[in-house]
Structure formats: C-alpha cells, structure tokens
C-alpha cells in the first residue's frame, strides 16, 4: 500500500521515539492529499497550475451556494481518492469547512481550511 509522509502545520511529523517520519496510508493518506488540494488556490502551486480550488465569490450563508461549493469540492475529491465529501458547515469568516469524507468502508469528519 502506498504511504505518504504525515504533514502538520506545513512540516513533516516525526515519531517521538526516533527520527523516522510518521507515515499515513489508505484513507488517511487520501484525506491528507484532499486537505492539501483544497487549501491551495487554483493556479498558485508552481509545480501544477491545475491543482487547487477556485472558490467563486458567493454569499455562503445561502444553502444553494453551499451546495455549489460542495460540488466544487467533490470535483477535486474525485480526482484524488475514492470517496465522497459532504459539507457539514462553513465558517465563512475564516473559510474553514467542517467536512465528512465517506469511503466505502468508513468515514472521517474533519475541518479543512479552504485556500490555506
């Protein structure tokens, strides 16, 4: 199974007992990749100008616009992993999304900072 290095606050996480990097696999690695992609503004990542999210300037206090945002998020999610994202709530002041990622055999709830 492919594993990713665990990241936190922009840096690599190391095991406390030695200098080895912590690793993530399976759905946790997919969620980390999704969180990274959603934190990038589309066009700002020098190595892949198509990576990231383009958030339209809409009133996200309206349910219809939240559904549009959820659709855009799922467009990114579908390119990365085999799961579906559900937008639970959105802190519009800080653009922090409370998300549920549903996989075939499990689900994870987490916060995602959109546009990092």
Walkthrough of the structure:
With 116 residues, the protein is an alpha+beta fold. 28% of the residues lie in helices and 28% in strands. It is built from 2 helices and 7 strands. The protein has helices at residues 26-39, 63-80, and strands at 3-5, 7-8, 11-12, 23-25, 84-91, 96-102, 107-113. The protein has a 3-stranded antiparallel beta sheet. It has a two-stranded antiparallel sheet with strand order 1-4. A two-stranded antiparallel ribbon has the order 2-3. Strand 6 (96-102) and strand 7 (107-113) form a beta hairpin.
SSE string, helix = H, strand = E? EEEEHHEEE
Low-confidence stretches: none
Query: Which overall shape is indicated by the principal axes computed on the Cα atoms?
Result: globular
The number of helical segments is 2
Intertermini distance: 28 Å
- Report helical residue fraction: 25-40%
Strand content: 25-35%
Strand order of the largest sheet: 5-6-7
Largest sheet: 3 strands, antiparallel
How much is the average pLDDT? Answer: 91
- Please give the number of β-strands: 7
Characteristic key phrases:
alpha+beta; two-stranded antiparallel sheet
Task: Give a brief description.
With 116 residues, this protein is of the alpha+beta class. It is 28% helix and 28% strand.
Outline the fold blueprint:
Blueprint: E1 3-5, E2 7-8, E3 11-12, E4 23-25, H1 26-39, H2 63-80, E5 84-91, E6 96-102, E7 107-113
Antiparallel strand pairs: 1-4, 2-3, 5-6, 6-7
Helix pairs in contact: 1-2
